[in-house]
Amino acid sequence: MNADTGRKYRLCPTDGQADRLTAWGHTCRWLYNTALEQRQFAWQQRKVTLRLAAQCAYLTEARKELGWVADLPAQSGQQVLRQLDQAYQNWWNPQHPAGAPTRKRKSARLSVPFPGQAVQVRRLNRRWGAVILPKVGEVKFRWSRPLGGAVRNAVVSFDGVAWHVGFGVHASVKAPAAHARPDTIVGVDRGVKVALAMSDGRMWNRAFATPGQERELARLKSKAGRQETARRKRGATTSHRARKVRAEIARTSAKIRNRRRDFVMWAANRLCAQHAVVKLERLNIEGMTATGKGTIAEPGTNVRQKAGLNRAILDKGWGLFHVALANQARTTGTQIVRVPAAFTSQRCSRCGNTDRSNRESQATFRCGSCGYQANADVNAAINVRDAAEAAPPLTGRAVRDRNRKASCRPPTQRRQRAALETGISRR
């Protein structure tokens, strides 16, 4: 039985336990990057596709020669290699949107995976629980919610502010046959001024960073940029002061990120509990937040304005909100419908007149045909509610290869040619 839901708790390790988990996190990152390079090299030089079993054997040999690798629990190292193998499986799957696996940065979130049989969880009292980790022992965590099932895997991570432990739990989660309120439909418009506007007139928004935090974060990023420029000129390594600045940036960013995640989870929980159908615009968020710099030959225009718009879109968590909706809908039976996004903000929800001049400002909508007045975001949400479902988008390899020229080679040869160009096997 696989895990079908997750539980995340605030972990409270001692200083010694935190230091050891930090070292393991860097070891896991090194192991993932090294295994990725090993696969790429084996295909480029020998046309051999390494798989999980072979790389686990190499890991066993590395543990005999490198003490700091042997310090990492063997189960955790094997879990890292399984994650890499699954990343390749997703890339090879034509129906999966994932691209080729990439290296993990040093600045990425530290994480140490464990299989379910390697950890033990027990409850200490009403507020505290404990998880027993290999080579670390018992680590306390805040028991903020019940587990609700059998633990299948665990991941210990550090987000820049605190340590957390996440459990993959088999809780037999099944969507109900019908929603508790079967005839309820709501349209949701996502915006940059107001995060969420509903077709029934409700508007939900929250500031994730205080003005002081925004100023402090801008100051720290500017300081980090000056330190990095000076380091490159000298050709030196990163100083301790620069590491402290980066750590402070990570802590502040993590606080903002946690508030954003809390807001989208709160909104998704209420929408799915109250409505049988939730309609959203089908938005290409990745394309909407792409950089506007352009190239040296064709530089972009209004680059600073585009960068500000990108930050505003990402700050509201549009994509995270859709993921939260889809996750919550599994327990309530809510249907998530995505509709075409074109002209929803310019079309009158009463008479259907579509004109750019209908939207007088960010918040004001006045139809030039029938004179209907409303909040612009609420009017767009009503149009989303009344729109028909959009055609499903291309996924997987169809998305990645849609801009390539047609080839006369059979599909197998085309895949082999693409593998040679990228240096990674697609078998």
UniProtKB/TrEMBL annotation:
Residues 231-242, 402-417 have a biased composition (Basic residues). NCBIfam families: guided_TnpB. One of its GO terms (biological process) is transposition. Residues 173-289 form the Probable transposase IS891/IS1136/IS1341 domain. The keyword Zinc applies. Residues 219-242, 393-427 are annotated as: Disordered. It comes from the Bacteria. Keywords: DNA recombination, DNA-binding, Metal-binding, Transposition, Zinc. In the C-terminal section; belongs to the transposase 35 family. Residues 219-230 have a biased composition (Basic and acidic residues). InterPro entries: Cas12f1-like_TNB, Transposase, Transposase_put_HTH. Residues 318-384 form the Cas12f1-like TNB domain. One of its GO terms (molecular function) is DNA binding. Residues 4-47 form the Transposase putative helix-turn-helix domain. It holds the Pfam family Cas12f1-like_TNB. This is Transposase.
